[in-house]
From TrEMBL:
Record-annotated Glucose-methanol-choline oxidoreductase N-terminal domain positions: 142-333
Start and end residues of each Glucose-methanol-choline oxidoreductase C-terminal domain: 435-554
Superkingdom, taxonomy of origin: Bacteria
Keywords: FAD, Flavoprotein, Oxidoreductase
Organism: Virgibacillus siamensis
Region named Disordered: 161-183
InterPro entries xref list: FAD/NAD-bd_sf, GMC_OxRdtase_N, GMC_OxRtase_C
Name this polypeptide is given: GMC family oxidoreductase
Family note: Belongs to the GMC oxidoreductase family.
Amino acid sequence: MVKKLPKVDVVIAGVGWGGGIIASELTKQGLDVVGLEKGQERKTEDYYMVHDELRYAIRYELMQDLSKDTITFRGNERMRALPMRQYGSFLFGDGLGGAGVHWNGQTFRFLPYDFEIRSRTIDRYGKDKIPSDMTIQDWGITYDELEPYFNKFEKMAGISGEENPLGGKRSEKYPTKPMKHSPQMDMFKKATENLNYHPYTIPSANLSEAYTNPDGISRAACQYCAFCERFGCEYGAKADPVVTVIPVAEKTGKFDLRTHSWVRRVLHNKDGKANGVLYTDITTGEEIEQPADVVVLTSYVFNNVKLLLNSKIGKPYDSATGTGVIGKNYAYQVVKGAASGYFKDEKFNNFAGAGALGMVIDDFNGDNFDHSDVDFIHGGYLSLTQTGQRPIASNPIPKGSPVWGKEFKNNSLNYINQTLSVGAMGASMPYQHHYLDLDPVYKDTFGDPLIRMTYDFEKQDRKLANFTAKKSADILKEMGADKIDSMDELGPYNITNYQSTHNTGGVIMGADPETSAVNNYLQMWDMENLFVVGASAFAHNGGYNPTGTVGALAYRAAEGIMKYHKNGGMLA
């Protein structure tokens, strides 16, 4: 028998960055909020002196148990989708804070071009520049409209950085100074300046100095220990929801956080409004109904889509006709356009670093360069990052080297501190045949259908990857590398090799209910008291890490929820 609890103002499904921001903002204004998180509770003390590469980076301690919930994958609709049973291309965070705990901290703002990508591309190059099956669309919001929310997120997180010379205009400087520069970073800076590019220090959620944010949360500076990505921060120096927004919500006394609570359905009335959620307490197996005036989905991309489809909310996307919106415009990221340089006479302390330590250029990102003579749109940033080369997973060797035996060992030891890489974070454009839907065969541990992902790299991606690989090699040559290996060809998408955890789309935002699922407050067109927050709202994926844009949209959604709570109706 389902247990029904008393009604609250707001219930949140998933307590990571999106859920933490929503909870913090709403409880500060007096709303009663329940936060449901299917994983365990976490705190900074959990990571004291736990620099364990095997446990966290190799065995994925902070990630979701794929035997209980995963996705299925196929490269195209002619293939049978099969479950992802071991981690590869991307990693699902699990537990309080979600992926916001194990991220590396690189915190960019999407470019003004991103939010009006279709209009701006057509204005500059004409409609023929966009392939007929590429489904890019404007986001229903401009950079200038979103800029105050970027600023709010950066102040909360204490982002350390300097102004991007090719980015959107800022209303204020970053709240803390840029991270320290290593010799490698200075080499990249000098080389890119020699090539007439515009380098700047990567904006970092790894604090460059002690900082107290507007909510009164104080955190210590980064120690450059290099255990950031796939790890929790033992110092609290890396901004994550557990050390920033969640404590603020809890301090109000208006936030009821329930871990081990697996949300399975959004409940809704015949009048077209949500009235709460159904979840399972995974410690007892008990099914519980939590009524609420407003429901907010703030889980990871795949789960936001899964909840909507399993709850029969919104029109599922149909790839044959291009109609429907739930599952539409899934996009990933093109991160293969990289080059490695081997330095015969120089050694670097590559073991040191931080998740967001590095230098970057945006000369080939967005529409910052003329695309008339290239067979793709958008682009990506090029960067040299020093995130720390940990011993188990770091074996940089030149192409053609043996992959086992004496020579492999000698090359590994020789090049571990004599190799630098310049990588690309390439944008990913949506296509009519890239989407998410419910798998007709495979189910999760509770018998609910899994999300099925249909995706592959396209000509656009291959051209972009080749372009950025050549530019990366040029930078390494200018840096003085004696030998350079760069990518020759981007092959089919391979879900077994790690690339990034930057999945986007499926519940996209826009100005038209026919082509989008949510408006620019992330309010569902089809259900006015349901908000869907996260990278699932991205109509495409830009040439950056997505967290800064996720955070900005979450702050705007929180504002929208308050407006809705007071006045009701669809928000303008």
